[in-house]
Structure formats: structure tokens, C-alpha cells
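Archive maintenance. Older records in this collection stored only the sequence; we are now back-filling the structure field for every entry so that each record is complete. The fields below show one back-filled record exactly as it appears after the update. Entries are processed alphabetically, and Calreticulin is next in the queue.

ARCHIVE ENTRY
Title: Calreticulin
Organism field: Athene cunicularia
Length field: 298
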Amino acid sequence: SSCAAFLRAELSRVWEAPPAVLFRQLLAGSGWQRRWARSGYEANPGRFQLTAGRFYGDAARDKGLQTSENAKFCAISSRFKPFSNKGKADHSAYCESFFSSDLDQKNLSGDSHYYIMFGPDICGSETKKVHFKCLKIVLAFFKTQVDRYTHLYTLILRPDQTYKVNIDNEMVASGKLEDDLEFLPLRKINDPTVRKPIDWDDQMQIDDPNDIKPEGWDEPEYVMDTSAGKSEDWDDAVNGEWHYPMNISLSWREWKPRQIDNPNYRGVWPHPQTDNPNYSPDFSIYSYENISIIGLGI
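Back-filled structure field:
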């Protein structure tokens, strides 16, 4: 399969008006190669090229980074002034991963430790989704639109530990990090001291007691192959007494009574919940320290 990526990136931190833009790349000319470090993790990595693509409004102003070779690992990253998003809302746009300042950019790979991964993943005819992961914890995959138009992908993380994902400024997902990602143990768990009542019937369907096996149905599953003969080198003293081999009968069919709705079905038993003793709140799961590198790996 072939994969292609087209990257423009912007990261802003909002805690007052107007917002502070922490990273923005308007790619033009050859200077972009000095600002972006190409990973040499693979022996023969793919390359990015600066292009406006096939469709654009302005050939000079609408340029971005695009993978130039199919079926090759491509990774590139750019460093900016370190910051923390603690107590502030973060807006990230387009397609990227965020790393701490200690990342080895020359060896950026799929195994590199990242803080956040966000953006579209379009590869071949099957993969068409938007990633949102924090510390390799997968939040969700959202279907993305594939057409000839440019689309804007935006992730917003807030200090109240909520998130929002926009595509073309239209919200496609939102929620609470604690609820939607497995950062923390569950607040509530099944009460281990409570057991389902013995008389609770949660089987939706049962065998029809009026459905009787037809006469003559009992064909044996295996039949003796009387056409087989004992081989000349068979020694009963060594190999044991020889018997005709058994083959699966071509006319055998397993019989099962038809299923009907269970008149005593009571539904799924609601296991009572109790506080999880291993749970403790963490009000900092949205925040990261020393955010300093933005990267793209395909």
C-alpha cells in the first residue's frame, strides 16, 4: 500500500486573549530543511518534499511537507522553545506528535516516547482515520473524510481535563480524559461481595422443547473404511491389532433443536457497583512538562 502525508503545523497555548502561538510553520524556500531534522532511524528512509500538491490556491503560499516515496518510513521533527501546558488550554492543528526536549531527533521512530499523537492517518484504501493518543494510550479512532480538499484537524486540551476534536471547525468528538482514556483505575468497580441470584435467568434464548429430532436422523458421524487394507509392513506385535480406519461420514449432520425466546429471561443482571479502593483522582493527566519538539512519523 502507499501512504502520503501533507503537513502544516501550528500549536497555540491559550490562557488569556489573544492566544500565544508557540509553534507555527509557514513553509517556503529551502530554509525549512534547517528547521526540521530528518530521522535516520531506518537504513533507507523516505524523504519529504516541499510542494503545494496537485490542488492549491496559491502555488507559493500553499506549500507544505509531503512524502515523496511510497512504502517507506518517513520521520521528521522540529524543535521549539520548551513550555508546559499546566493550567492552560492547548490547541494543536493538523498532524503531529509532541515530545519532550530529550528526544533524539536523529533516531525518531515509531517506538519513540511521545506525549500526544494527533492527526489523520490515511493509508491505502482501508486506513482512513484520525488518531488521538496520550502517552501511547489510545483514546479513539475517528473516521476521516478522504477527498481532494484540504481539511483542518484541531485538538483542544483544557485544564478541566476535557478534550475536543474538530475537523474543519466542526466538533467530531469531545469528552473527559479520565473517562475516555485508561489513565487511572476505574472510580467504580463491581462489588466483589455481591453475587448474581441463583434464580436470575439471563439466557435470551433456549432450546424449543417441542422441536423433536426427525426419525432416521441418527447417522453415525464416523464410518468404517472397509476399502482400506492392512499394509504389508504392519506388525501386530509391534503396532498393535490393526483396525479399519474411520472416516467422517458424508451424510452425517449434527442436529440441534431450534431456538426460541426464553419466557423467563430477565435481562443482564446489573452488578452493584462500589468505590474502587485503588482509585485516587489525578488532576494533572492533561498536562505535560518540557514540551519542546513536534514530529511526524509515517
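Update note: The CA atoms of residues 182 and 205 lie 35 Å apart. The longest strand covers residues 75-83.
Entry marked complete.
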